Batch of 2 targets.
Target 1
Amino acid sequence: MKVSLTLFATLLVYVVFGLEPETTVVPLDKDQVKEELNEIISLIPRDNITEIANSHLAHDEGFRAAIYYMQQPEWRAMVDSIRANPKWIAFKEMVSKFGLDIDQLIKCTKTFIENANVGDVDPKANRSLAAFVKDVEGVIPIGQMLVTFGKNKNLQNMLQHIQTDESKAVVVDALNIPEVKKYVQELSDMELNVKEVLTFVFAALGWGNFESA
Ligand SMILES: *[C@@H]1O[C@H](CO)[C@@H](O)[C@H](O)[C@H]1NC(C)=O
Ligand SMILES: *[C@@H]1O[C@H](CO)[C@@H](O)[C@H](O)[C@H]1NC(C)=O
């Protein structure tokens, strides 16, 4: 997991800082951004990921324990409380301007969790998403996605809009919601290192250190 994340981060930093510095920020063409983003997202093999998830449900005790935990009322209450928070809504609206539909992603995840048959879960089993994430990383064509990104001017323009202090403030506000902090910590406890990913994203966007934001 570390290797491919680090590779991803390095490439992302390279792509972002490899951009020609522009003196004026060009207005966003929303439709174009959405189209180019869809081109990249369509490279993610969803069927393969579903297959991987089902295989882990069948064979991976740590994954089963994690999904079982996410099926419990406490977890659902935490997610619902995040989604109702005005700071989260502001964040969601900001990224929707960039063509990203977070609700869609949440809905897919929620449907999977609710429908997952975890079978008999050992209450003492350690929750872990590590093996699942490692397998998912194996089917995501990161190189191809970055090449596609590099070809798309509107997406690069979008990055310049995201790099602003205003955008950073919205993201930091959302990350500081107590339930979001708890969520990030819980996922880290399940060996899904969200903090590492956030650290990379902050560095790539030139936002400084995520931990001190
Ligand atoms: C869970 O993890 C702890 C700490 O790594 C370990 O000591 C324990 O044996 C594990 N429990 C099971 C059921 O694997
Ligand atoms: C995705 O699944 C299809 C059908 O099972 C398979 O042919 C293909 O090789 C898989 N792709 C990857 C990247 O594993």
Note: The mean pLDDT is 86.
Target 2
Amino acid sequence: MSSKSQAMILLLILTIFSFTFTPSSSDSITIYWGQNTAEGTLKAACDTGLYEIVLLGFLDVFGEGRTPSLNFTGHCRGSSCITLESEINHCQNNVIEVYLSIGGPSGTYSLGSSDDAKNFADYLYTNFLTLPSQKKKKNQVGPLGDVTLNVPPELSIVFWGLPAAPDAAPGGGYIPPNDLISKVLPHIEETCSTHSCGGFMLWDRFHDIESNYSNQVKHWDEQSACRFVTQVSKASLGSVSTT
Ligand SMILES: *[C@@H]1O[C@H](CO)[C@@H](O)[C@H](O)[C@H]1NC(C)=O
Ligand SMILES: *[C@@H]1O[C@H](CO)[C@@H](O)[C@H](O)[C@H]1NC(C)=O
């Protein structure tokens, strides 16, 4: 075997290795949960193994003197959401990050001043982001109990927000899984080579069950890795047979 083809095979192995094993966040799926009881429990959503991140929606009352309040429509509201504590722990123990989404379509919220914003930030930090030991020190039980929610590792991170079914976006914007994989993903991969990407962010768990969307896009990276490996193998076989 010539040294040229040996070098080619080494290159091939290195390339496959880096292509397949570099942790890439462009393929991870974030799902909104909390706006429809028919979507099932948070624990069940985490147990599907489809999602890397769950966004709890929503903390939909805050600012300008309002007492902040959770509203996971139908599942629980306000202080009754403490029942989610064990489910959040379950998700995090299975290496699924749990974020809190603030705002939403129907709440009552606004921030009136920078002091207002600071107070709200303090509220979020104390109730959802400090460690249980610090909460205990302050004798504080947050609306979600002792959980410490996750935060994105970087401040500027791109998530690709998508409706999980046509009726999740009555105004349009639904992209069928096949189109997503063949037409949109190449551009996403390009963007993610120079920006921090958080992957897909789907609205929402209910519509994902209905359409099986994330199941269909979940393994696109393996599919494209297979195509890539096949192409490189063909190319290197060609090169080996001609040297
Ligand atoms: C909770 O959210 C739902 C859906 O967004 C909304 O219809 C409902 O009015 C909210 N409940 C309260 C008490 O804000
Ligand atoms: C969902 O999609 C996956 C992957 O394409 C497929 O294996 C599975 O059978 C689908 N499930 C349903 C209920 O359609």
Note: Residues 212, 215-216 surround 2-acetamido-2-deoxy-beta-D-glucopyranose (ligand 2) (CB under 6 Å).
